[in-house]
Design goal:
This protein is mainly alpha-helical. Helix content is 68%, strand content 0%. It is built from 18 helices and no strands.
Length: 428
């Protein structure tokens, strides 16, 4: 029986515009468009999201939806939005800044709707496959732009963003890392079942993402977090002897990549050179500014440890701290490039508790086996690791990767009737 049949009772045939099943299929098609557009366009992602909400609205049964919203996987992301809204009451920032600072949390309100829709949909793999195809096409274009930078759609030819057609190298690296590590699960599953050819093809695709990052461009965040994510996969799916062999192989491949890739050596070498410039000259290097942001944010948190300084207060605090300073210490920003501190400065310990509880509940939701559970688990793990260096829940691109990945995969596990176990073919 089609899962969409559960949306409405059986009865006389309805016109398409009144048929919840027709709206449900339309919503899934639009979700595919969201996944296709996310690596390429912020505007299209926003437009398709609005269209998706319109399409999914006729399929929602209020009673069932309200029952779902009471579950912790929904309560905590909604609580983050509510905290941001209430936090405007004790902020000293201008009201424009307070309201603007709420916007990054609005996307979290999509999670209950996504959970609801994808506990009924048989088309979940369409969405994840669309994202993989879109990222694969972007990878091809990255190689082309690396060869001919004039092809880029960006307004300026920044030498530090070699091989970037759209957006920026941080977003592109996040996508490529997610795809490369996510593919490890189906490759492993296919190998164990003796399906060598499809495993080889998917393995080559995953390797292509890695090679692009090694030889074209990669963000420092991706460079640090990708080994962590692979380690998580190995610990979950291999015995210690296999892990030791894989570690040796990874070290060998890393050594070969280091030898063959000037881009990789340049990226890694920038850690040391930027730190030295910051320490000796107070230079406004990327790493130096991040250190300053973290030091000041910890101080801001200590000044208001329970409730924080309020929504939208971060930039004003940095402006005050920059008075009379020079170099990296004089830099002003509204985002300390660390998710925990971004939350802590604005909403104190209460915000940290809500953030970490949301991560933990979502992480535990995806415990168990199955491709969909692995994708959801990996999206949460990536967000936790990368949020050591960025405020990725609040960033548009990475935030929507989290919302779409967790929402679609989490809804599937609701349909499976479990808190984390879903078979690989549960959505076929």
């Amino acid at each position: 029986m089609n899962a969409d049949a559960a949306i409405a009772p059986v009865g006389p045939a309805l016109p398409a515009w009144r048929d919840p099943q027709a709206w449900a299929k339309a919503a899934d098609i639009v979700a595919v468009l969201i996944a296709l557009s996310l690596p390429w366009s912020t505007s299209l992602t926003g437009i398709f999201t609005v269209v998706w909400l319109i399409a999914v609205a006729p399929t929602i049964q209020p009673g069932a939806f309200l029952s779902l919203v009471k579950r912790p996987i929904c309560v905590l992301p909604v609580a983050m939005f509510v905290l941001a809204a209430i936090g405007t009451l004790w902020s000293d920032a201008a009201w424009g800044a307070r309201l603007y600072a709420i916007l990054p949390t609005v996307k979290l309100l999509m999670l209950p709707v996504l959970f609801y829709r994808y506990q009924h949909s048989p088309r979940v793999l369409w969405i994840f496959t669309a994202f993989l195809i879109s990222c694969s096409l972007l990878m091809v274009m990255s190689w082309i732009v690396a060869y001919d930078p004039a092809i880029t759609l960006k307004s300026s030819l920044d030498p530090h963003e070699r091989g970037i057609l759209v957006k920026n190298y941080i977003d592109q690296s996040q996508e490529f890392v997610l795809c490369a590590v996510a593919l490890a699960y189906p490759v492993n599953t296919l190998l164990r079942s003796g399906k060598i050819l499809p495993a080889l093809l998917l393995g080559l695709l995953a390797l292509s993402f890695v090679i692009n990052m090694m030889f074209v461009i990669v963000s420092r965040t991706a460079l640090v977090t990708m080994p962590m994510m692979l380690a998580v996969f190995a610990l979950l799916h291999f015995k210690w002897r296999s892990i030791a062999a894989m570690t040796c192989g990874a070290i060998l491949l890393a050594a070969l990549a280091w030898t063959a890739s000037p881009q990789l050596r340049l990226t890694v070498g920038s850690f040391d050179s930027q730190y030295e410039s910051y320490k000796e000259q107070n230079a406004s290097t990327s790493l130096g500014m991040r250190i300053e942001f973290l030091k000041k944010s910890v101080r801001f948190f200590a000044e208001a440890p329970i409730f924080g300084h309020g929504t939208g207060s971060t930039r004003g605090l940095f402006e005050q701290a920059a008075i009379g300073q020079t170099g990296a210490a004089a830099e002003i920003i509204g985002n300390p490039h660390n998710q925990t501190l971004n939350v802590a400065v604005q909403w104190g310990t209460i915000g940290i508790v809500v953030l970490y509880a949301m991560w933990l509940v979502h992480l535990l939701w995806f415990r168990g086996d199955g491709l969909i559970a692995w994708v959801g688990f990996l999206v949460v793990v990536q967000n936790i690791f990368t949020s050591l260096f960025n405020s990725h829940i609040f960033d548009f691109h990475e935030g929507w990767m989290y919302v779409l990945g967790v929402g679609v995969a989490g809804g599937t596990l609701l349909k499976a009737g479990s808190s984390g176990v879903a078979p690989v073919n549960s959505n076929r």
